């Protein structure tokens, strides 16, 4: 990869990692479900007037809009609103890689390697340690909701696989039309203070919405899609592992979040497991080549 493209990939990971800090700040200004609805509304409008749908079937846009926009982000924002720290959320959400691998094996018959299976076990051990440590604390429900968000991210990844090769920016922008209405309905039923949050919006609130809808969604996905067009997925995808690192670091610097010893140990297990899931195929191929007589 060219140096400029490497920097772009790192920048996207930084944008997505810092996004968890921005979400945490935004939750102080907006009810969580309304917050998600506004995110997708401003990600779609006015972009849909300038970016064509390019023939992407509506059934896939609706499926992704519900699984990714309504359920995954709804669970994530509510979970973080219930006390789940931003840095820890950025890492726990990456359990989507484990769920994606398991669902790919069940739905797509994509059999994981032994290394990837080992990664699932290690990551699950880390998740189990976190669940055990946080059970009985105010943040426990938030943790379970973020894990559930990771599961539905995995569901959306399988749907993306079914969609096939499409223009990623068009997909994200047009998919963003789906979540606002159902989320607004849920917000009306489950939340209060929506009108005050909108009419009394501060510059901080407006900046948060701009960041998560335009910078984190439209810009970052456009840049990510461009990198995937220029390079193979095996070269680009590993940069996503920087997201929880940037998320944890930025949450520590900006929000003053700290990990306990158990949270640190559990996080190391989760991250190690995800590394094996992501790079398991490469490890298996490398060992196979070494075992072949020269």
Automatic annotation (TrEMBL):
Transmembrane segments: 7-27, 33-51, 58-80, 86-108, 115-134, 140-159, 171-190, 202-224, 236-255, 261-280
GO CC annotation: membrane
InterPro entries the UniProt entry points to: AA-Vitamin_Transporters, EamA_dom, EmrE-like
Localization, UniProt: Membrane
Keyword terms: Membrane, Transmembrane, Transmembrane helix
Taxon lineage: Bacteria, Pseudomonadati, Thermodesulfobacteriota, Desulfovibrionia, Desulfovibrionales
Residue ranges occupied by any EamA domain in the UniProt entry: 6-131, 141-278
Superkingdom assignment: Bacteria
Protein name: Membrane protein
Organism, scientific name: Desulfovibrio subterraneus
Membrane topology (UniProt): Multi-pass membrane protein
């Amino acid at each position: 990869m060219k140096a400029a493209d490497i920097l772009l990939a790192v920048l996207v990971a930084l944008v997505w990692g810092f996004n968890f800090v921005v979400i945490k700040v935004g939750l102080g200004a907006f009810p969580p479900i309304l917050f998600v609805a506004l995110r997708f509304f401003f990600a779609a409008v006015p972009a849909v007037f300038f970016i064509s749908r390019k023939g992407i079937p509506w059934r896939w846009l609706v499926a992704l809009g519900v699984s990714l926009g309504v359920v995954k982000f709804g669970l994530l924002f509510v979970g973080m609103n219930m006390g789940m720290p931003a840095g820890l959320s950025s890492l726990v959400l990456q359990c989507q890689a484990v769920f994606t691998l398991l669902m790919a094996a069940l739905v797509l018959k994509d059999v994981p390697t032994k290394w990837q299976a080992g990664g699932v076990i290690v990551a699950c051990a880390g998740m189990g340690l976190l669940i055990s440590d946080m059970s009985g604390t105010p943040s426990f429900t938030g943790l379970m909701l973020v894990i559930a968000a990771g599961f539905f991210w995995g569901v959306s990844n399988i749907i993306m696989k079914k969609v096939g090769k499409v223009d990623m920016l068009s997909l994200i922008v047009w998919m963003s039309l789906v979540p606002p209405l159902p989320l607004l309905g849920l917000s009306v039923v489950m939340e209060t203070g929506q009108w005050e949050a909108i009419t009394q919006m501060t510059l901080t609130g407006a900046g948060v919405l701009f960041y998560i809808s335009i910078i984190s969604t439209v810009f970052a996905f456009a840049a990510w899609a461009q990198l995937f067009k220029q390079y193979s997925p095996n070269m680009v995808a590993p940069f996503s592992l920087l997201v929880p690192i940037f998320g944890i670091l930025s949450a520590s610097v900006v929000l003053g979040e700290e990990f306990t010893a158990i949270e640190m140990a559990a996080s190391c297990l989760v991250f190690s497991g995800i590394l094996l899931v992501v790079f398991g195929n490469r490890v298996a191929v490398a060992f196979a080549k070494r075992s072949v007589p020269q």
